[in-house]
């Protein structure tokens, strides 16, 4: 409970700093705020709303959070929502890089793109998590078929699964393949976008230093540094998914404990990200440590 309250407090402080202390940079401010809200939301999903837990050796899981326990929302829906939220969060961070790139580009009039490119990106920004959720929704077994599946494939676990009222079971099918291919393509696209944009930003910063004041240059440099650190901490989001894939492929022993530990590591992302944002953004740092 104390860890949860600490995470929420850190998230709220960061959000308030962005609202009241961030420069009026329009689009960039909006997306960095949206990213922090998504980060705070992931705390709630991990600790309050969903609380997903695996049920190995079967490819299954259950949720014991508030929405599952008191509202009876099916685990499959909650896990799908959490995956879509993670995709949305990564998109927010990539957009922050892209918009910061354009803010710098407009100052030095170099590599400026039209608004048509931006709105095309917004379209995919909105549609991608929705498609990911819908594909994931098709990847699971129907709720009414789950116990028959356990009885026919894993009869030794039938009595144990009978004790759960809210769980989801998955099997490898075409939808799982589509989801894996889509996730791989999305990861490559986001990774390449991050790499290309970052390289170009550092190239432009060298030219920008000659055209703006030292204070303005420091502000832009601080924002880019903060984004780089936030991108680094976003790796914590991928730890549970990566370990989950490793477990499936290697039949790792003590699977249940291993996955629970990785889920706990993933839940640390919001508080780590909030600390990184505060300490790497000069305006926030100076305000808090006055």
TrEMBL record:
TM region positions: 30-49, 74-97, 117-136, 172-202, 223-249, 261-284
Pfam family, one: 7TM_GPCR_Sri
Keyword match 4Fe-4S: no
Record key words, sorted: Membrane, Transmembrane, Transmembrane helix
Protein name per its UniProtKB record: Uncharacterized protein
Taxonomic classification: Eukaryota, Metazoa, Ecdysozoa, Nematoda, Chromadorea
